[in-house]
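Kindly inspect both lines:
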Amino acid sequence: MTELALFASENQTKDFSEYSVEMIPANIGKQFIIKHHYSHGVHNGPICVGLLHNGKLVGVCAFAAPSSENVRSSIFGEDAKDSVIELHRLVLLDEVPKNGESFFIVRALKVLKKHRPYYSAVISFADPTENHLGVIYQATNALYCGRSAPATFYLDETGRLRHPRQNGKNITSDIAKQRGWVPTKREGKHRYLYLLPNDRRHAKELKSKFKLEAIPYPKKGETNEV
């Protein structure tokens, strides 16, 4: 296993002195995401961190429990699954300068750790079906842990993509049909991870429990097997 990076970092080239990153109410974050994110949806009860420019909300990073229990357990094992959370949504307005995403992610993770210190890992996925490689995660030194298995998702009556697990329950093809949802095949997603240790001793503990393999970043045009 390659050396595990601890915390995210970014190469900052723009002046972000007029920007701040802080916790915001979940309802405000959800409204922003629904309006500006391409999915127009977000998990219920997310932990939302906002990017503000002179007090104006210009970005939201939403953290939430992964839909799959297996995802949570895959990092450190079943006993430590509650220490894992997903970077579920990230959206910034176009007015945010270049490198704004990396600036925001690094500080959003620190805000999350400050307010929810029991989280030790943040997992996030980049969907190649949407032509996402995860470049922003690479730019912030996230660990790359391969790809998830391909899966069947659903498109609802509004065209919104729906996960095959909703509110803790698996959605069967029959249930989806009753709801008017159309099945759609999705490629395996690129899987990235940030570790959030409390201190050096905790960092060693996390490394010893880490169950995935950190491998080199994928590059555009490469084929990565699941």
Remarks:
- The chain is about 25% helix and 30% strand.
- The CA atoms of residues 34 and 40 lie 4 Å apart.
- The mean pLDDT is 87.
- The chain has two domains: 19-146+189-209, 151-186.
